[in-house]
Specification:
Length: about 260
């Protein structure tokens, strides 16, 4: 696209025009909303965060933007800037780029948006317009719902998420669930490919992640906050194109039968 800016130019334009510090997720939304980028890749928010943190680390004082807090960035230093601006030395390379335990998740995905086979496609997008990622080979934890009620909690280890959910379309729970949520542990690359499972996880990373998953999934009324939160990308479901093809065939066959 000839009018599309590079990620760097798009980030500079949005931050320069912003009235104050912006979270990198809001910055990404603004870039997409203003049409500054159309080619988004599979992980646009992580791409924006990586551009920002890398530029600050590599360019130091010459960088036109600086970090102002957890996930917050601001255009240069001005009178309206926060009293403490985080230096390049203080920036952790892993800061909010991807959670060391949970890397991605999807909430209340529709069962009827999946073409169920022994190897189904579980398609999700980080942002509308971003490249779709197939999470069928993801591993982690999943929940099945009947309406809003959680009826089953399962894990995927020896068999990936797609196969486990497919099994639930045939066995004793086959008629009991209509939606599902999942929390995955395999990293997602910018090209939308799932990576390898890390060899070890320290307890101080696992426990907060498990708490955050339960709070996100179950929404307990007495929790005043979302634990440590899930500083990872939530993926929104994309309907399998085979569903639309099937609907079109059914409509054609119905119309044909009415003429007979």
């Amino acid at each position: 696209m000839p009018n599309e800016l590079t990620w760097r130019k798009a980030i500079e334009k949005v931050l320069r025009e912003a009235s104050g510090a912006m979270h990198y997720k809001d910055l990404t939304d603004k870039i997409i909303e203003d049409g500054l980028r159309v080619s988004l890749g599979a992980t646009p928010t992580r791409t924006v965060n990586a551009h920002l943190t890398t530029a600050i680390k590599n360019e130091g004082e010459n960088c036109p933007f600086q970090k102002a807090g957890k996930g917050l960035f601001i255009w240069k230093v001005s009178e309206s800037s926060p009293t403490h601006v985080i230096s390049a030395e203080e920036i952790d390379e892993e800061d909010e780029v991807q959670h060391p335990v949970v890397t991605s998740f999807g909430m209340f995905w529709r069962r009827d948006a999946v073409e169920w086979t022994s190897n189904p496609k579980l398609l999700g997008m980080e942002q509308i317009g971003a490249d779709a990622v197939d999470f069928s080979n993801q591993i982690g934890i999943y929940l099945l719902y009947d309406g809003r009620e959680v009826i089953y909690v399962g894990r995927t280890t020896d068999r990936p998420l797609g196969k486990r959910l497919y099994e639930h379309t045939m066995k004793r729970l086959s008629t009991r669930w209509d939606r599902f949520s999942w929390f995955g542990m395999l990293p997602v690359s910018e090209s939308g490919v799932l990576g390898e499972f890390p060899s070890t996880f320290p307890a101080e990373k696992i426990i907060p992640a498990m708490e955050a998953i339960l709070i996100e999934a179950l929404e307990p009324c007495q929790n005043r906050k979302r634990g440590d939160g899930l500083p990872v990308a939530e993926y929104f479901q994309k309907e399998d194109s085979e569903i639309q093809k099937k609907k079109a065939r059914q409509m054609f066959e119905a119309a044909l039968n009415n003429k007979l």
